[in-house]
Write a structure and sequence with these properties.
By secondary structure, the protein is α/β, with parallel strands linked by helices. It folds into two domains: 118 residues, Rossmann fold, CATH 3.40.50.2300; 82 residues, Arc Repressor Mutant, subunit A (Orthogonal Bundle). The chain is built from eight helices and 14 strands. The strands form four sheets. It has a five-stranded parallel sheet with strand order 5-4-6-7-8, with helices on both faces. Strand 9 and strand 10 form a beta hairpin. Helix 6 crosses helix 8. The longest helix has 18 residues. The chain is elongated, with a radius of gyration of 21 Å.
């Protein structure tokens, strides 16, 4: 706290930053040139792109990255894209779009039957790929989506307000209602200073009768959870 101000800071490597991206897209494609071009176009549209390099750990990377959409090739080292599509679909409803040079009808049928949302054949226009990506994102999360559970994310931290739960990578902890409100206020404004009065207003409708140390107690509880996890996220005071 600094003059009654609080700020959520997240350290990544040697830098401190907050995430401001529209969507995270995982590219599972073993052709390095195609992967690079896809990444360039995706980032041009304001999304974040992550390229798979270890094709024996696709599911583990999916769980680690937690993407909003997956671009998947059919022909991959180790296991094919149909296999990885099934693995991802067993734990997530995240949109999966296949991109492949295989034009056979059965390949497209297999992709859809294994859980894919669309199948794009090569050669393709990158503008068409982006249109399909954005369309899938709208259906899954945007104007056409069914109401979904709210999630507030900052780097590897994910807050689920309705569940009263906070996760850091593969670790989860339950929160009290007040701790959830506190974290939501801070995570909605990463790297920005939030005043003590603003937090008190969110936490208690009439904060004039709240002891000065009460807010510090909730902050200390959150810090303890992060310290136990080894997270670099910090509440700077």
């Amino acid at each position: 706290m600094r003059n009654g101000l609080f700020c959520l800071r997240v350290t990544v490597g040697n830098s401190i930053q907050g995430v401001i991206v529209m969507a995270t897209i995982l590219i599972v494609e073993d052709d390095a040139k195609i992967s690079r071009l896809l990444k360039e176009h995706i980032e041009k549209y304001g999304h974040r792109a992550v390229i798979t390099e270890d094709f024996s750990q696709v599911l583990q990377q999916f769980q680690r990255v937690a993407p909003d959409l997956v671009l998947m090739d059919v022909n991959l080292p180790k296991y094919d894209g149909f296999y990885w599509c099934r693995q991802i679909r067993s734990i997530s409803t995240c949109p999966i779009l296949f991109i492949s040079a295989r034009e056979g009808k059965m390949d497209q049928v297999m992709a859809l039957e294994n859980g894919a949302d669309d199948y794009i054949t090569e050669p393709f226009h990158y503008e068409v790929v982006m249109a399909k990506i954005n369309s899938s994102l709208r259906r899954a999360y945007g104007a056409y989506a069914k109401p979904a559970e709210r999630v507030v994310k900052v780097q590897d931290l994910a807050l689920y307000p309705e569940r009263l739960q906070l996760s850091f990578r593969d670790q989860k902890t339950s929160l009290t209602h007040k701790e959830t409100i506190l974290l939501e206020a801070l995570m909605e404004n990463p790297m920005r200073v939030v005043s003590r009065d603003q937090l008190l207003e969110r936490l208690w409708s009439d904060h004039h009768f709240i002891d000065d140390n009460t807010l510090n107690v909730y902050v200390a509880r959150v810090q303890k959870n992060w310290a136990n996890w080894g997270s670099r996220a910090r509440l700077k005071r």
